[in-house]
Amino acid sequence: MICDSCMNDTMRVKIPRTLLTYLNMKNNRLTFLALLMLMAFTSVYAQTGDNTYTVCNVKNFIKKITAKGEGVQSPVMNLQLPETKSIDVKIIADQSEGGSIKVYGQILGAKTSVFYLYGNVNEIKGKILIDMKDGYEVATDAQTQNVMITKVDVNKLICLSPGATNTSSNATETNTGKEIGRTSTTPVLSSFPSAPFVLYLNFDGGYINDPYWISNGMGSAKTCTGPGYSDAMIKNIWAGIAEKYRPWNINVTTDKTMFDAKAKGMRQEVIYTMTWSMTGYGGYSDIGSIASKSTEIAWVFYGNLINNVNDMVVTGSHELGHTFGLTHDGSVAEGHYYGGQGNWGPIMGDNYKTAARHVWQWSKGEYNNATDHDGNPNTQDDVAVIAGNTGVGYRKDEDGNTTSTAKSIIAETDGTVLGAKNNGVITTRTDKDYFKFTTTGGAVTFNFQSGTKTWTLDEGVLDIQARLLDASGTELLLSNPTIATAGPNNGLDASISTSIAAGTYYLEVDGVGYLDPKTTGYSDYSSCGYYEIIGNYPVLATVINEQQQASDFILYPNPANDKLYITLSAQSIQAYSIHITDVLGQVVGVLSQQQLQDGIDISHLLSGVYILQFIDEKSQSIVMKKFIKK
Ligand SMILES: [Ca+2]
Ligand SMILES: [Ca+2]
Ligand SMILES: [Ca+2]
Ligand SMILES: [Zn+2]
Fold this sequence. Notes:
- By secondary structure, the protein is an alpha+beta fold.
- It folds into four domains: about 10-150, no CATH class; about 160-385, Collagenase (Catalytic Domain) (3-Layer(aba) Sandwich), CATH 3.40.390; about 405-540, Jelly Rolls, CATH 2.60.120; about 545-630, Immunoglobulin-like (Sandwich).
- Helix content is about 15%, strand content about 35%.
- The chain has ten helices and 36 strands.
- The strands form eight sheets. Strands 1-8-7-6-5-4-3-2 form an eight-stranded antiparallel sheet. Strands 21, 22, 23, 24, 25, 26, 27 and 28 form an eight-stranded mixed sheet that branches. Strands 9-15-16-14-10-13 form a six-stranded mixed sheet.
- Helix 5 crosses helix 8 (about 310-325).
- Zinc ion (ZN) binds next to strand 9 and helix 8.
């Protein structure tokens, strides 16, 4: 017992020892004012109810939890909890330094326990968890400076994901793990190398000496071994989790050096191991550990799951989600873990339903009868909670959300459009991305792929709607394929294939929902992620970019009434022709070089904006300029 002034049994009367001392010392001067003070304190305690126990002033509390206990290796203190419970705590690590407090303990007599307190001299926070049954939150009242312990649902503090009762396996993704004797080094993969925040997927294991987990199931420091997955399996799991965390400034990586380079609070790791596990449980994490800095580790016990890519992706994403502060997506009928609807499942719900659901997204409880861990209505906005963590935030959008800020499609000389050069990220539900291209007219095809397709099955999170717009922004075509009600989620992709006239066009990419988010599907809330545009369209061999246009020819007068004239600035151009199109891409005039000698007759055109395409016959390059017919 080291805690003589604030945590011993006499505190059960719920009057701070400091106040008692004051009253004892000054009893001969006990005034009406002191009585009033006592009454005021008593009424405050009464309001907190049986679920909250007021310990003492924060400064006294800190003195005790950080006491090294002269000559005592492992101080043990007695701590009073609500409902007249008390515990004996052995301090196993005190990582306090400077003004910050960080203390870990082990609750004596408990098989597994969490005792973690952190903060500073003015505010102590923390959590206490006994044998996965009784959970308590520690907080400091800003007004009274008193430390309070409140009983809470254990699911608010920690996620011990239940075991996989699911025995079916994904047909096309069998277990390629558990390959004993993996000798090659883990593939080095990073989804966003320059991002300030790192999520490290640890498939290699290592020596883990973490006070948080030692008392909470691990028992002692251990050398944990990885699952021995093949390179392909690791790459697929990485690709799947990277896609789940695409909207934010987060680098999902298998590269430990990326993790090591970040400060605490700007990184988190998930270890895939079976060196130890909570028997029958698939994952384990401390809710909010990134902000509280209680531990930088979450766990996936791969052997207690269906050991395939999909389960590893959703469980890894789920446990990491907890570390950002996310609690479960439950439902009135299904309890803590909602199993999803149609082909859609919430990442923070029942992550073992991967054989049944193929579109896994973040949720803010839009489905009917959504509940949180306590059975209360679920209003936690997953996407915003993750963004709200220090250093995270949303990834910068590549462009604005209008055609005027469109990026140019980068085509090969034969008109092929490669995904590696034409891609982007839909970062939020309101983000739309635009691409611009100019064609000489004919058949065009654009396929819009959700995710990197590293792992073709169920990797994507973004459900794409694509539109083809003409030069004025009017829709010509829309593609938003239906999602299969079961099976792989390839309906997340979109495709546009048509024939168009020469001119300039736009492509619009948007994340959309499917069916009814209340009962059968999802909204566009979390329909975000990486996409690639792959296709082809007729281009002249070289399209001179817009910055070069000014020096190639002068078009005058502009605006014009009857005649337009061209003056060439490049002497090398010998043979050329021009096409004139309206803003809808309709060709209104084709003229040869000979027909241009006396100027271009535009007297027959209606008033408006037109595009003149200057085509160099030799280099097959094209330069376009706008002009106005008065
Ligand atoms: Ca974007
Ligand atoms: Ca959208
Ligand atoms: Ca955009
Ligand atoms: Zn969980």
